[in-house]
Amino acid sequence: MDSTLAVDVDRYLESLFADGDAAMEAVLKSSSEAGLSPIAVSPLQGAFLSLLASAMGAKRILEIGALGGYSTLWLARGLSAGGGVVKTLEIDPKSVATVRANAKAAGLADKVDVVEGPAALSLEAMIERGEPPFDFIFIDADKENYPLYLDLSVRLARPGALIVADNVVWKGEIADGKSTSAAVKGLRAYLEQASADTRLKTSVIQTLGVKGHDGFAFSLVL
Ligand code: SAH
Ligand code: DHB
Ligand code: MG
Questions:
Q1: Ligand 1, atom 9: nearest CA belongs to which residue?
Q2: CB 161: neighbour CB atoms within 10 A?
């Protein structure tokens, strides 16, 4: 798909709603210097996640997959005034160090708690120890495990919480039920599980822009 026009539109919208943000640009720069992949959410998507968290008055946010902390810090900015935390689960030690440094540089170290290790184990440990429920959960780690992350997330969410999953359209490849890609299989299983789960009310929005053709799934925990 030719997305040149969509990129131009994103650049224009960024200039209005997500520009001149030195702190967030510094996160991308340090992520790139640390050798992390350039796959963070786009500036407009980050601003949108932040707006959603704000609209919900979220005080406890859980993120699965931090990379350099770009989405993490957008979410931390969306925390309601007077407190709250973003707990982010990350397997890659290099990412963990980068997120911590970026949170500190942004003056948000007290609001970001990075948990190092495989996310499934961290989620199970949180359930085990009776972690207080989360208001907002952002799933953005390994696509193969999205179905497991959804199940564990529902158990960590309060009624009325929102679970947002990134990358669920995957350049449109999710329309191919015969795909042998592990990511596509994981993403399709996630969507089918969300659709069948009576504890959730779900919809999906496709996106097009600087990150190409993709989409977010939004599930309200009933
Ligand atoms: N949310 C970030 C992008 C995350 S990229 C942003 O938008 O800015 C996906 C991240 O998930 C990577 O940092 C990767 O190391 C991490 N990841 C992959 N498998 C994981 C696992 N099993 N447990 C925890 N993190 C994992
Ligand atoms: C890719 C993009 C993402 O947002 C992500 O979380 C993982 C991979 C990608 O484009 O490969
Ligand atoms: Mg992603």
A1: 141
A2: 23
Based on C-alpha coordinates, what's the Rg of the chain? 17
Q: pTM for this one?
A: 0.98
Decide if pLDDT at 189 tops 80. yes
Number of residues written out for the chain: 222
Quote the ligand 2 centre to 167 CA distance (angstroms).
7
What per-residue string of b and e applies to 194-213 under the rule 16 or more CB within 10 Å gives b? beebeebebebeebbbbbbb
**Residue 39 CA to ligand 2 centre (angstroms):** 5
CATH code, 165: 3.40.50.150
Q: What is the extent of the structural domain holding 21?
A: 3-221
Ligand 2 is surrounded, with C-beta below 6 A, by 39, 140, 166-167
Could you report the per-residue pLDDT of 19-63, keeping only the tens digit for each? 788 999 999 999 999 999 999 999 999 999 999 999 999 999 999
Nearest CA, atom 5, ligand 1: 67
**pLDDT (tens digit, 9 = 90+) per residue, 120-146?**
999 999 999 999 999 999 999 999 999
Q: Whose CA is closest to atom 1 on ligand 1?
A: 66
Q: How far is the CA of 66 from the centre of ligand 3 (A)?
A: 9
Say how many domains are in the chain: 1
